[in-house]
What we know:
It comes from Haloarcula onubensis. The chain has 10 helices and 4 strands, in the order ααααββββαααααα. It is an alpha+beta fold.
Amino acid sequence: MSTATEYLDEIRVRFGIESSDIVRWGAVLGVELAVVWGYFLVTQTSVTEPRYVVYPFVWINLGALAISRTRPSARRFGVRASAASITGIYLFVLLTLGGLLQLGLFQHLGSGAEFRISWVTPGWGPIIVFRNTLVQTVIVPFKLVGYLSIAYLLYARLLDATKGALSGVFGLVSCVGCSFSLLVPLLGASTFSTIAWLSWDLSTLVFVATVGMLYWSDELGARLTRWVPAGDG
């Protein structure tokens, strides 16, 4: 029993978990469960694939947790502007590849304007669509939160890179992996039937791994620095 207690205490210290964190996130999970339960009661629909109900909240909660525990390093304005520019470009790519943003400059979006809200399973929805001749936005809650959290973590890691450590570089390289989480759902089912069937399983796994690598890239970069042999000069 003491061994289990010591192990739990080690985990608590390792991740900086306080009693208030347990209460706070317990309340969050409780509210999310109530919202999902209420949705299925009101709509009188049944759950055929429970994991697809859970996955959106993995994205939302993990992304929110990582953001709340990440503080970008203080740097001069020029460095922050450069990091923000790179992050903005990457976020634009994420939103575009993820289907959340389309510009009329690159394709025809039709005539007129449209605004609608689709009430679907919480986490996946409500899906908010706005379209005119110039831009189309499709807001899927969990994807938007997930992409914003990745962008925020990347921004923080790019600022770390200015310290001369490998942390920021490692974070940037690891973030390339999250592109896979965007591309997998877009693969043609006829060509990649097995992968397409597991698309959101793989996407969620890669998202979790990417957030983890970005969040701990400072520590991982420091370890890589110790492993890399020092130059003769």
